[in-house]
Request: fold
Amino acid sequence: MATYLELSGHENITNWRRFLRGRFFSLSALLLPMFLIALWWLASARGWLPEQILPEPTYVLQTGRDMIASGELLYHAAVSLRRVIFGFAIGAVLGLALGIAMGLSARFEDYVKPTFLAFAQIPTLGWIPLLMLLVGIEETLKIIIIAKGALVPITLNTFSGIRSVPGKYVQVGKALRFSRWQTLRLIVLPGAIPSIFTGIRYGLTHAWTSLVGVELLASSEGLGYLLVWGRQMFWLDTVIIAMIVIGLIGFAMDKGLNGSEVFIQRWKKEGL
Reply:
Protein backbone atom coordinates (compact mmCIF):
# COMPACT_ATOMS: atom_id res chain seq x y z
CA MET A 1 0.00 0.00 0.00
CA ALA A 2 2.79 2.39 0.96
CA THR A 3 4.65 1.55 -2.20
CA TYR A 4 1.54 2.31 -4.27
CA LEU A 5 1.08 5.67 -2.54
CA GLU A 6 4.75 6.51 -3.05
CA LEU A 7 4.50 5.67 -6.75
CA SER A 8 1.28 7.68 -7.11
CA GLY A 9 2.85 10.66 -5.35
CA HIS A 10 5.95 10.44 -7.51
CA GLU A 11 3.79 10.25 -10.65
CA ASN A 12 1.78 13.30 -9.56
CA ILE A 13 4.96 15.28 -8.91
CA THR A 14 6.30 14.28 -12.32
CA ASN A 15 3.06 15.36 -14.01
CA TRP A 16 3.15 18.72 -12.23
CA ARG A 17 6.76 19.22 -13.29
CA ARG A 18 5.83 18.51 -16.90
CA PHE A 19 2.87 20.89 -16.62
CA LEU A 20 4.98 23.70 -15.15
CA ARG A 21 7.80 23.05 -17.62
CA GLY A 22 5.31 23.31 -20.50
CA ARG A 23 3.92 26.56 -19.12
CA PHE A 24 7.43 27.90 -18.55
CA PHE A 25 8.46 27.22 -22.11
CA SER A 26 5.19 28.71 -23.35
CA LEU A 27 5.90 31.90 -21.41
CA SER A 28 9.58 31.95 -22.35
CA ALA A 29 8.61 31.76 -26.02
CA LEU A 30 7.00 35.20 -25.60
CA LEU A 31 10.21 36.83 -24.37
CA LEU A 32 11.77 37.33 -27.80
CA PRO A 33 8.61 38.83 -29.42
CA MET A 34 8.19 41.13 -26.41
CA PHE A 35 11.82 42.20 -26.67
CA LEU A 36 11.46 42.91 -30.41
CA ILE A 37 8.29 44.95 -29.81
CA ALA A 38 10.05 46.93 -27.06
CA LEU A 39 13.00 47.53 -29.38
CA TRP A 40 10.60 48.61 -32.14
CA TRP A 41 8.85 51.04 -29.78
CA LEU A 42 12.17 52.44 -28.57
CA ALA A 43 13.51 52.86 -32.13
CA SER A 44 10.39 54.74 -33.23
CA ALA A 45 10.28 56.85 -30.06
CA ARG A 46 13.95 57.85 -30.36
CA GLY A 47 13.67 58.46 -34.09
CA TRP A 48 16.39 56.01 -35.03
CA LEU A 49 14.57 55.48 -38.34
CA PRO A 50 12.20 57.80 -40.19
CA GLU A 51 8.51 57.32 -39.42
CA GLN A 52 7.86 56.55 -43.09
CA ILE A 53 10.14 53.51 -42.78
CA LEU A 54 9.32 52.40 -39.24
CA PRO A 55 5.90 53.60 -38.04
CA GLU A 56 5.10 53.53 -34.33
CA PRO A 57 3.59 50.31 -32.90
CA THR A 58 0.48 52.19 -31.75
CA TYR A 59 -0.05 53.54 -35.27
CA VAL A 60 0.30 50.05 -36.76
CA LEU A 61 -2.10 48.69 -34.14
CA GLN A 62 -4.67 51.34 -35.03
CA THR A 63 -4.26 50.53 -38.72
CA GLY A 64 -4.90 46.88 -37.94
CA ARG A 65 -8.05 47.75 -36.03
CA ASP A 66 -9.29 49.89 -38.89
CA MET A 67 -8.59 47.16 -41.44
CA ILE A 68 -10.45 44.61 -39.31
CA ALA A 69 -13.38 46.95 -38.74
CA SER A 70 -13.68 47.68 -42.45
CA GLY A 71 -13.46 43.98 -43.30
CA GLU A 72 -10.50 44.55 -45.63
CA LEU A 73 -8.01 42.45 -43.66
CA LEU A 74 -10.44 39.58 -43.11
CA TYR A 75 -11.38 39.59 -46.79
CA HIS A 76 -7.78 39.30 -48.01
CA ALA A 77 -6.98 36.66 -45.35
CA ALA A 78 -10.03 34.62 -46.42
CA VAL A 79 -8.97 34.79 -50.07
CA SER A 80 -5.49 33.53 -49.22
CA LEU A 81 -6.82 30.77 -46.97
CA ARG A 82 -9.25 29.58 -49.66
CA ARG A 83 -6.45 29.37 -52.18
CA VAL A 84 -4.07 27.53 -49.88
CA ILE A 85 -6.76 25.04 -48.81
CA PHE A 86 -7.58 24.10 -52.40
CA GLY A 87 -3.98 24.02 -53.59
CA PHE A 88 -2.71 22.14 -50.55
CA ALA A 89 -5.49 19.56 -50.80
CA ILE A 90 -4.57 18.82 -54.42
CA GLY A 91 -0.84 18.68 -53.65
CA ALA A 92 -1.38 16.49 -50.59
CA VAL A 93 -3.54 13.94 -52.41
CA LEU A 94 -1.11 13.71 -55.33
CA GLY A 95 1.90 13.63 -53.02
CA LEU A 96 0.49 10.85 -50.84
CA ALA A 97 -0.50 8.78 -53.87
CA LEU A 98 2.87 9.25 -55.56
CA GLY A 99 4.86 8.62 -52.39
CA ILE A 100 2.90 5.46 -51.60
CA ALA A 101 3.25 4.16 -55.15
CA MET A 102 7.01 4.71 -55.19
CA GLY A 103 7.36 3.27 -51.69
CA LEU A 104 5.47 0.08 -52.51
CA SER A 105 6.80 -0.55 -56.01
CA ALA A 106 10.51 -0.55 -56.79
CA ARG A 107 9.74 -0.70 -60.51
CA PHE A 108 7.50 2.36 -60.31
CA GLU A 109 10.24 4.13 -58.35
CA ASP A 110 12.80 3.35 -61.07
CA TYR A 111 10.56 4.87 -63.72
CA VAL A 112 9.31 7.93 -61.86
CA LYS A 113 11.72 8.99 -59.12
CA PRO A 114 14.59 10.36 -61.30
CA THR A 115 12.19 12.59 -63.24
CA PHE A 116 10.42 13.64 -60.05
CA LEU A 117 13.70 14.61 -58.37
CA ALA A 118 14.64 16.72 -61.39
CA PHE A 119 11.20 18.32 -61.24
CA ALA A 120 11.63 18.99 -57.52
CA GLN A 121 14.93 20.85 -58.04
CA ILE A 122 13.20 23.69 -59.87
CA PRO A 123 12.06 26.29 -57.31
CA THR A 124 8.30 26.62 -57.03
CA LEU A 125 8.29 30.27 -58.05
CA GLY A 126 10.52 29.40 -61.02
CA TRP A 127 7.47 27.83 -62.69
CA ILE A 128 5.49 31.07 -62.67
CA PRO A 129 6.76 32.56 -65.98
CA LEU A 130 5.97 29.36 -67.91
CA LEU A 131 2.62 28.82 -66.20
CA MET A 132 1.62 32.41 -66.88
CA LEU A 133 1.91 31.67 -70.59
CA LEU A 134 -0.03 28.42 -70.27
CA VAL A 135 -2.85 29.25 -67.84
CA GLY A 136 -2.72 33.04 -67.40
CA ILE A 137 -2.59 34.86 -64.07
CA GLU A 138 -5.97 33.89 -62.64
CA GLU A 139 -6.78 31.40 -59.87
CA THR A 140 -5.54 28.37 -61.80
CA LEU A 141 -1.97 29.68 -61.69
CA LYS A 142 -2.10 30.16 -57.93
CA ILE A 143 -3.61 26.74 -57.25
CA ILE A 144 -0.96 25.00 -59.37
CA ILE A 145 1.89 26.85 -57.65
CA ILE A 146 0.51 26.05 -54.19
CA ALA A 147 -0.06 22.40 -55.12
CA LYS A 148 3.50 22.09 -56.39
CA GLY A 149 4.83 23.62 -53.18
CA ALA A 150 3.02 20.96 -51.14
CA LEU A 151 3.63 18.06 -53.53
CA VAL A 152 7.39 17.67 -53.23
CA PRO A 153 7.89 17.38 -49.44
CA ILE A 154 4.78 15.23 -49.00
CA THR A 155 5.86 12.82 -51.75
CA LEU A 156 9.44 12.46 -50.51
CA ASN A 157 8.52 12.05 -46.85
CA THR A 158 5.75 9.57 -47.62
CA PHE A 159 8.14 7.54 -49.77
CA SER A 160 10.80 7.64 -47.04
CA GLY A 161 8.31 6.66 -44.34
CA ILE A 162 7.01 3.65 -46.24
CA ARG A 163 10.50 2.42 -47.09
CA SER A 164 11.51 2.75 -43.42
CA VAL A 165 8.86 0.28 -42.25
CA PRO A 166 10.74 -2.90 -41.22
CA GLY A 167 10.32 -5.76 -43.65
CA LYS A 168 9.57 -8.20 -40.83
CA TYR A 169 6.31 -6.34 -40.18
CA VAL A 170 5.24 -6.99 -43.74
CA GLN A 171 6.22 -10.64 -43.34
CA VAL A 172 3.93 -10.87 -40.33
CA GLY A 173 1.11 -9.54 -42.51
CA LYS A 174 1.83 -12.20 -45.09
CA ALA A 175 1.83 -14.87 -42.38
CA LEU A 176 -1.61 -13.62 -41.30
CA ARG A 177 -2.72 -13.75 -44.95
CA PHE A 178 -3.43 -10.03 -45.15
CA SER A 179 -4.42 -8.68 -48.54
CA ARG A 180 -2.34 -5.88 -50.06
CA TRP A 181 -4.91 -3.35 -48.90
CA GLN A 182 -4.89 -4.75 -45.34
CA THR A 183 -1.10 -4.74 -45.28
CA LEU A 184 -1.05 -1.13 -46.41
CA ARG A 185 -3.80 0.01 -44.01
CA LEU A 186 -2.82 -1.97 -40.92
CA ILE A 187 0.96 -2.23 -41.17
CA VAL A 188 2.63 0.08 -43.67
CA LEU A 189 0.73 3.33 -43.18
CA PRO A 190 0.69 3.23 -39.34
CA GLY A 191 4.45 2.64 -39.36
CA ALA A 192 4.99 5.51 -41.79
CA ILE A 193 2.74 8.03 -39.99
CA PRO A 194 5.54 10.06 -38.34
CA SER A 195 7.33 10.64 -41.63
CA ILE A 196 4.06 11.30 -43.48
CA PHE A 197 3.02 13.94 -40.98
CA THR A 198 6.44 15.55 -41.23
CA GLY A 199 5.92 15.77 -44.98
CA ILE A 200 2.42 17.21 -44.52
CA ARG A 201 3.69 19.89 -42.14
CA TYR A 202 6.53 20.83 -44.50
CA GLY A 203 4.11 20.68 -47.40
CA LEU A 204 1.71 23.08 -45.72
CA THR A 205 4.57 25.46 -44.90
CA HIS A 206 5.77 25.37 -48.50
CA ALA A 207 2.21 25.80 -49.77
CA TRP A 208 1.69 28.88 -47.58
CA THR A 209 4.98 30.52 -48.58
CA SER A 210 4.35 29.68 -52.24
CA LEU A 211 0.92 31.28 -51.98
CA VAL A 212 2.35 34.51 -50.62
CA GLY A 213 5.05 34.47 -53.29
CA VAL A 214 2.63 34.05 -56.17
CA GLU A 215 0.31 36.70 -54.72
CA LEU A 216 3.24 39.07 -54.63
CA LEU A 217 3.76 38.61 -58.36
CA ALA A 218 0.33 37.98 -59.84
CA SER A 219 -2.70 38.87 -57.76
CA SER A 220 -5.16 41.66 -57.08
CA GLU A 221 -6.32 40.27 -53.72
CA GLY A 222 -4.91 38.27 -50.83
CA LEU A 223 -2.32 38.90 -48.14
CA GLY A 224 0.55 38.86 -50.64
CA TYR A 225 -1.25 41.53 -52.63
CA LEU A 226 -1.54 43.64 -49.45
CA LEU A 227 2.24 43.50 -49.11
CA VAL A 228 2.77 44.73 -52.66
CA TRP A 229 0.06 47.38 -52.44
CA GLY A 230 1.42 48.70 -49.15
CA ARG A 231 4.94 48.87 -50.56
CA GLN A 232 3.80 50.67 -53.72
CA MET A 233 1.83 53.23 -51.73
CA PHE A 234 4.56 53.42 -49.07
CA TRP A 235 2.07 52.39 -46.38
CA LEU A 236 4.52 50.55 -44.16
CA ASP A 237 1.86 50.06 -41.49
CA THR A 238 -0.18 48.00 -43.97
CA VAL A 239 2.91 45.98 -44.90
CA ILE A 240 3.66 45.21 -41.25
CA ILE A 241 0.06 44.20 -40.54
CA ALA A 242 0.05 41.85 -43.55
CA MET A 243 3.36 40.31 -42.43
CA ILE A 244 2.04 39.75 -38.90
CA VAL A 245 -1.14 38.10 -40.17
CA ILE A 246 0.82 35.88 -42.57
CA GLY A 247 3.08 34.75 -39.73
CA LEU A 248 0.21 34.14 -37.30
CA ILE A 249 -1.84 32.11 -39.79
CA GLY A 250 1.18 30.00 -40.76
CA PHE A 251 2.02 29.42 -37.10
CA ALA A 252 -1.57 28.44 -36.29
CA MET A 253 -1.75 25.95 -39.18
CA ASP A 254 1.54 24.33 -38.16
CA LYS A 255 0.39 24.04 -34.54
CA GLY A 256 -2.88 22.52 -35.68
CA LEU A 257 -1.11 19.83 -37.68
CA ASN A 258 1.27 19.21 -34.80
CA GLY A 259 -1.69 18.66 -32.47
CA SER A 260 -3.25 16.25 -34.96
CA GLU A 261 -0.01 14.30 -35.18
CA VAL A 262 0.28 14.05 -31.40
CA PHE A 263 -3.31 12.80 -31.18
CA ILE A 264 -2.79 10.16 -33.87
CA GLN A 265 0.48 9.02 -32.34
CA ARG A 266 -1.25 8.68 -28.96
CA TRP A 267 -4.00 6.66 -30.64
CA LYS A 268 -1.31 4.48 -32.22
CA LYS A 269 0.50 3.93 -28.90
CA GLU A 270 -2.70 3.03 -27.10
CA GLY A 271 -3.42 0.47 -29.84
CA LEU A 272 -6.97 1.63 -30.42
